[in-house]
Amino acid sequence: MRIAMIGTRGVPARYGGFETAVEEIGARLADAGHDVRVYCRGAVEKLPAYKGMTLVHLPAVQHKIMETLSHTALSVGHVLLHRTDVALVFNAANAPLLPFLKLARIPVATHVDGLEWKRAKWNGAGQRYYLAVEKLSVRWSKQIIADAVAIQDYYRETYAAGSVMIPYGAPVQERCDDDLLRAEGYEPGGYHLVVARFEPENHVDLIVEGYSRSAARLPLVVVGSAPYAEEYVKKINDLAAKDERVKLVGAVWNQDLLDALYAGSATYLHGHSVGGTNPSLLRAMGAGAPTIAYDVVFNREVLAESGAFFAGPEDLATVIEQAEDDPAACRRRGDLARERARVHYTWDDVAARYERLCLDLRG
């Protein structure tokens, strides 16, 4: 089959969950003999191909609302001139462009992601737009892809729409690179970890506040930043400045170091609340990080019995203290999380399910 993957920043993956999914799935589809074309934007080095995938580089308007849609518009135009058997479109925000593919009789599956309209960065108009494109995705896609059962439930209950559930995969680490951690100034097992973009729905401020209320002996290492949320970033900086145990280290682009940080953490604190199957959560699980997650249905679905949960600063402080008081129990939860990732969230299985979906779309 000829398969086009549209709507992300493309590969190599250096940004987020969509890009990682495209790289992991696309490479495996290419290995299986399919002609995979990935549309990319913003790459410093414009590679013509990567891991068996053909890369098409197109520009985009540099604006938080228009960037994705402008790039996808050009990508759809390219697809119309260079036929494909199936189009996989990532992000419901691209739904206004789906009729062009439908008119060209190109079957489309849209990966709708989480409940984007709940994100605080969108104002009233942005929220209305994301609610509208959810409906358009249902109307104009041959199939909807949900990455969690809870997202499936939402689309069924809200739009009476069926979907196929395909989660993300989790990289599994059997050991931690202790030498790398120590070279970078971290003691294995000697810190609590947050990895998140600084956006309100990821609750980094709540985590810092809850940690500061605790009697934790180990420091809190916070990895992340935000390109647009200046006011929210200031709030986090102000909270961190009041507690010398909190270490804001910014973004970490060295993936080996990031893997080691997950694997070497005493706990991983996960505050994401509006997505489905979150890639950062899966990465922590695959690394065997004992995870304490914000108490929403998505996180409970992914972690199941391997997780501990919090709803506010006070109960987070309590759970952190319990984790330090009983590190053996904490490690057992981490081992359970790794095994759950190994069994339920493998990229080989994810790619096989995408291949079956593409065969079904082509008919």
Automatic annotation (TrEMBL):
Named from the GO MF annotations, one term is: glycosyltransferase activity
Q: Which UniProt keywords apply?
A: Glycosyltransferase, Transferase
Please list the residue ranges annotated as the Glycosyl transferase family domain.
192-339
Q: Does the keyword Chloroplast apply?
A: no
**Pfam families associated with the record:** Glyco_trans_4_4 (PF13579), Glycos_transf_1 (PF00534)
Q: Residues in domain Glycosyltransferase subfamily 4-like N-terminal?
A: 16-168
Name-wise, this protein is Glycosyltransferase family 1 protein
